[in-house]
What we know:
415 residues, mainly alpha, Growth Hormone, Chain: A, 14 helices, globular
Amino acid sequence: MRQYFLRFRHFHKNAKLFIYLTFILSVSQTIFGLVYNLYILKLGYTREFLGTLESIPVFVTAALAVPLALLCVNLPLKKNLLITLSLAVFAALGLSIFPSKAMLISFRFVSGFAGAFMAITSWPLMARYSTDKDRNFVFSFQFAFSMFGGFLGNLIGGSLTDWTAVLLSGGLESAEAYRVTMLTGVALMAFSIVPAFYFEEPEKAESAPRNLDLGGVKPAAALLIFLPQIIVGFGAGLIMPYINIFFKTSFNLQISSLGFYMSLMPLSMAAGGFIGPWLVKRKGQVGAMIALQALSIPFLATMGFSGLIFPTVAAAFVRTMLMNASWPVYSVFMLSHFKKEAHPLASAMYTAGWSLLWAFGAKLSGTLQMDFGFTMPFLITIICYCTATILLSRFFLHEDTKKTAGPAVLKEEMA
């Protein structure tokens, strides 16, 4: 652990600021997200409509990520960040205040715009302000900090909702109590804009292609690079948007208990973020991703089908830690196959594909839950994770036998 923090001291200033920013954003979004689904159901809407709301912003992100990458790629990353955060705050505020179906749908569209801007900003930013030597650490550190923020957000959100329920509705969990928690998250989300103002960038942004040029990588090859995690995205969409509902309805939890159990998930992700670079040194990038994803599958099955609270929570903790430890590793792996100037477009194309399948998964899951509960979503997710692991092994494991940096890693320094 000491090695991580020593490396952090030498990160580029903008990389550090982005880590601080995403930590605050993660705390605020988790406070908001802990009760958001429950709030929608408490308003009297069905799970099918909830599935629609979950899918809208991801469909919008999928549709806009590539066009925005082409139109806004030469905008300074600072401006992109400010646009992203402003849209996110506006959307969350609207969702908290306006309960009508039309307004909820409208503000979920705004959430999708925010997601699209983040898609063309976050990974390219961290890649630009890191070197080959410390890139795995920058991505993993940012991921771990954002997950630790999620841990705090769940604890705060659960306790806050308990208190407001006592004050507003005699201890009963009501839409009004949920709304107070959501508005608290919005206020903290607005504070996440502050670090973005301290970003330092050249007055003139680097020029980048305004067409579908992926730096010499053929579209079919790019699709193969994206495909394993896009499949994972479909499986994640079936389960993750509803994980709070899964725990609450399966075990009849109070909101404070739900907040505690939900806080364990991002805490395990934070732990996973630190595992990634350690495992990459021993097994290589692809070997690490395969090992982490394969090991997570039995725990996913235990989580979905044990029917007992403590085995379910323990399995969810381990599965979440293992599966999400591969995310920062994959981020570096994916970007390493493209030239630096193609990073925003590559990131946008990946995000578009991942978001599209995630949205289909979220929409499908809302319908499946009406007929099968969570049984079918968990079964399909297990199949998705197995398929993604096999694809990684079949098409990319050979890269780890070549030099450590990988066959296509770029040797650029920080901009």
